Amino acid sequence: MKNVVLLGSTGSIGTSTVKVVEDLPDRIRLLALAAGNNSELLLDQARKHQPAAISISEPAKAQALRDAVGTAIEVYSGNEGLLKLATLPAADIVLIAIVGTAGLQPALAAIRAGKDIAVASKEILVMAGEIVMNEARQHGVRVLAVDSEHSAIFQCLDGKPASFVRKLWLTASGGPFRDAALWPKEKFSEITVERALKHPSWVMGRKITIDSATLFNKGLEMIEARWLFDVEMPRVGVVVHPQSVVHSMVEFVDGSLIAQLSTPDMCLPIQYALTYPDRAASDRVQTDFPKIGCLTFEEPDPERFPALSLARRAGEIGGTLPAVLNAANEIAVEAFVNRRINFPQITATVSATMAAHSVVAHPTLKQILEADAWARSETGKITNGK
Questions:
Q1: Is 208 or 271 the better-scoring residue by pLDDT?
Q2: What topology is assigned to 318-386 in CATH?
Q3: Share of residues in the chain with pLDDT > 90 (%)
Q4: In terms of Cα–Cα distance, which of 4, 29, 26 is closest to 120?
Q5: pTM
């Protein structure tokens, strides 16, 4: 039985994780659950799974949860609650599915407590990949991927060293605006929030869905892959694959390519991370190749999707620049969703923030967090027209 701490239990990754746990009740136990503001769903999850502890981001909601669950479940709140759950002595693995930067400190706390972590929050490795992976090596713990693309690469590598790799190929659906004939660059300013939220392959949270439309998600994944698999940015590539069946590929130095394929379903990479190194039997994901028919691949269009070039530059320069890229994108996406800027202004705003930043090489965690705060403030000024 593996004891899992799930941080971000009420989001899309969190609810999929709960499904995986329910599929494998003899193998996985939810030891602790943390949520943002959705106290009602957290309470439902707690009543059903009876974890040892839960946490809610708003302290004001914690007392109501205590009244509801009684003394059998410990209730925490805020950042302190996340750190408490991430370091529970009985935990075997901490799955971090918190959107944004809030998962970074719990991830480091879990590593320092000797816990394996499963990472669904791109921000952790984009902002502080060098620090996180160094800490993981020092404490002898594993950093396991939950993103379908990085899970695929992990499975394809199967323990092979980075020196065997010619290139890691991340696949991208291309998002809802992949078709240049339907969506030429000149029409991007007409893209509405509602249209950008209609992803052709995946059902995800709002932020990552917008990132899929701009291809910023793939840019962030490139930086994430660079740290997870210890390769330089030039050895990380992106290919557009609209069917989203090939989740990613590894091209080895001898020219061989190995890919991981399945029908799109986040339960599969989540289950693999939580049961690794085993593979548990499950009927949840079924792949019917005759029904799929064909698999196609295309070059991404850097003119219409400049986010990829911005991310590659941030990853190659390194230091505090990836943290700035990430923070600027978060604020720009929020501004787009709130209709303060248009769709192409997301990448334009991130580019302007990156250009204004003075990069610190090999930063401390304090310097990374300062760069993050600076980028949020700078981007906020741009998106508010100040």
A1: 271
A2: Rna Polymerase Sigma Factor; Chain: A (1.10.1740)
A3: 91
A4: 4
A5: 0.92
